[in-house]
Design brief:
Length: 244
């Protein structure tokens, strides 16, 4: 039996990369999926690939009105929400000494504020057995040179799971963090090139970057009852990068 049969999931940042890979796996496991993101063209292409068990809603995780539209659509079509994969995030390098207020604001607007409101606004649709998955990063544990704002924002996401697990006591809703390392999304491959990918891969004991499908497999585990006694936890899928 598929592990997510009959479940309804929302995936933010779901049009490409890890989000799209997770949407594919969730649907394969029986879920109905709403993907959410800012680029209509990418969302349309993703839904065409995902098929009839997917819907796309356009909006920003840092815009509360947009999030309201998302959850109104979920409630209208499905009634309730079982799985929330708060995957939308952003990050760019800027060295210490060059960091600007605008750079900090951009990063924290999506990764911190956006994650808070994505989760908070979903809660009225969730109940016993619900699973919230937050996308963290190995950088939230180890730090990453030149990525001050990004690393700090992902450390905040790790703490959200600890704090919210306490806040959600008695609801039956679990919240965990899925923390990838360097992942070979189309965007990453284009940005890094072949040599850059080899360089990032060499940082791990497995000597390669992750495939988005490998992160998606871990997301299915956290979404399903296979992880029923996990909350406030961090699942590192980083090739050992932040573990040594």
């Amino acid at each position: 039996m598929n592990r997510l049969t009959g479940k309804t999931a929302v995936i933010t940042g779901g049009a490409t990369g890890i989000g799209l890979a997770a949407a594919k796996r969730f649907i394969q496991e029986g879920a109905f999926v709403f993907i959410y993101g800012r680029r209509q063209e990418a969302l349309d292409a993703a839904v065409a690939e995902l098929g009839p068990k997917a819907r796309a809603i356009t909006g920003s995780v840092s815009d509360e009105a947009d999030l309201d539209r998302l959850y109104v659509a979920v409630k209208a079509e499905r009634g309730t929400l079982d799985i929330l994969f708060a995957n939308a995030g952003t990050g760019s390098p800027l060295k210490l000494g060059e960091i600007t207020a605008a750079h900090i604001d951009e990063t924290f607007e999506t990764n911190v504020k956006g994650t808070i409101f994505t989760v908070q606004k979903a809660l009225p649709l969730m109940g016993e057995g619900g699973s919230i998955i937050l996308t963290g990063s190995s950088a939230g544990t180890t730090g990453a040179p030149g990525f001050t704002a990004y690393s700090a924002s992902k450390a905040a996401v790790r703490n959200f799971a600890r704090t919210w697990a306490e806040d959600l006591k008695g609801t039956g809703i679990r919240v965990n963090v899925l923390s990838p390392g360097a992942t070979a999304t189309e965007l990453a491959k284009a940005a890094l090139g072949e040599e850059g990918q080899k360089s990032y891969g060499a940082m791990t004991p497995l000597l390669r970057m992750a495939e988005p499908s490998e992160i998606a497999a871990a997301a299915v585990f956290l979404a399903s009852s296979d992880s029923s006694f996990m909350t406030a936890s961090e699942l590192a899928v980083d090739g050992g990068l932040a573990q040594l």
